[in-house]
């Protein structure tokens, strides 16, 4: 049931593209009213068409056929019930008089659905009938949804080949119209852009302004396609995101800090800077003379010098 309902919804959306609008106008014949006396007819129509707003209609000739079947001494109560149900529907005036010019149901339905005889459902009727010959004739009238009842189940026929051809032709026409319209808009926009380029170059200047270009002639305007072709690309460089930024150079370099373990050789220590170095006393050795004795250069000896020489000579002899 769910699959069939989804299929019927899709079918009615296709008919809506051909001009059908809610509430649908439902045109019925007398035979479908007789076959659905024990069923909720309007509930079946609403579930099948997925629409709660319907306009059920019946022609004057169809209700006339019900009255003709109820004539005579042996009247059928089912026909009387069908007449009472048909009275609740809207009467569609077909223009055929009840007594003189009454037509059979089949001819009346064809004249109402296709009034001009050109195979077009002008008023967009949804036809519900049990007559197979009538449904066969209405399949050539586009677009016409057809319904009938089989074993207490309402069935909506698929779209006929004639209606499908019309739908495909209209969809193709809409598609082509959209392409033509888009092409026209693009062409118009391109012309406006070309006119704007001419005005910028000076060709569209007003002669009353008194401004003359002199000997300089404006260059001819070029279209966007020519500009794209003549465009020259420069040398490709590295990716700016991958290049590392250079550090800003300062005016004065910062002095490097010396290591604490290694003092600067140029800087004097605190002791050397404050106190001068003490001179080391020079000690001279005694020189030996040819006579075998040593003679000191200092003035440590006495005035005569005799005593010192004897001491040195004594020390030399003792060593030998």
UniProtKB/TrEMBL annotation:
One Pfam family it belongs to: Fcf1
Taxonomic superkingdom: Eukaryota
Function: Involved in rRNA-processing and ribosome biogenesis.
Basic and acidic residues bias spans: 214-226
Bias kind Low complexity: ranges: 310-320
Renumbered residue ranges of the record's region Disordered: 186-320
Domain UTP23 sensor motif region: 229-248
Bias type Gly residues, positions: 290-309
Alphabetized CDD domains for the sequence: PIN_ScUtp23p-like
Source organism of this protein record: Diplogelasinospora grovesii
A biological process from GO: rRNA processing
Family: Belongs to the UTP23/FCF1 family. UTP23 subfamily.
GO cellular component: small-subunit processome
InterPro entries documented for this protein: Fcf1/UTP23, UTP23_sensor
Signal peptide: none
Name the record gives this protein: U three protein 23
């Amino acid at each position: 049931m769910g699959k069939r309902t989804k299929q019927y919804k899709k079918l009615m959306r296709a008919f809506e593209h051909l001009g059908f609008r809610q509430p649908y106008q439902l045109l019925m014949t007398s035979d479908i009213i007789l076959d659905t006396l024990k069923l909720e007819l309007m509930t079946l129509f609403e579930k099948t068409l997925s629409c709660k707003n319907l306009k059920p209609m019946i022609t004057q000739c169809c209700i006339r056929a019900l009255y003709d079947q109820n004539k005579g001494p042996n009247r059928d109560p089912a026909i009387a019930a069908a007449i009472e149900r048909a009275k609740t529907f809207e009467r569609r005036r077909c223009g055929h008089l009840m007594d003189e010019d009454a037509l059979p149901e089949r001819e009346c339905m064809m004249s109402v659905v296709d009034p001009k005889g050109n195979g077009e459902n002008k008023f967009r009727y949804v036809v519900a009938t049990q007559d197979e010959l009538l449904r066969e004739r209405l399949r050539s009238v586009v677009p016409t949804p057809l319904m009938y009842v089989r074993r207490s189940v309402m069935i909506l026929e698929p779209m006929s080949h004639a209606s499908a051809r019309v739908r495909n032709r209209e969809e193709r026409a809409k598609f082509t119209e959209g392409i033509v319209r888009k092409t026209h808009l693009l062409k118009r926009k391109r012309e406006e852009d070309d006119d704007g380029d001419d005005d910028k170059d000076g060709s569209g200047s007003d002669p009353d302004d008194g401004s003359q270009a002199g000997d300089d002639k404006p260059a001819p305007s070029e279209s966007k396609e020519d500009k794209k072709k003549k465009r020259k690309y420069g040398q490709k460089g590295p990716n700016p995101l991958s290049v590392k930024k250079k550090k800003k150079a300062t005016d004065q370099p910062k002095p490097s800090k010396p290591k604490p373990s290694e003092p600067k050789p140029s800087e004097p220590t605190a002791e050397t800077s404050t106190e001068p170095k003490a001179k080391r006393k020079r000690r001279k050795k005694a020189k030996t003379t040819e006579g075998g004795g040593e003679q000191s250069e200092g003035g440590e000896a006495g005035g005569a010098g005799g005593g010192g020489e004897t001491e040195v000579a004594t020390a030399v002899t003792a060593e030998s």
